[in-house]
Amino acid sequence: MKRQRIEKHESLIHGVVNEYILKEGKSFLKNEFVTVMGIKLSPDLSVALIFISVLDNSKSDFVNERFQERKHDIKQYIVKAIAKKIRKIPEIKFIIDSTEHEASRVNKIISNLDIPPTK
Question: Whole-prediction pTM value?
Answer without folding.
Answer: 0.79
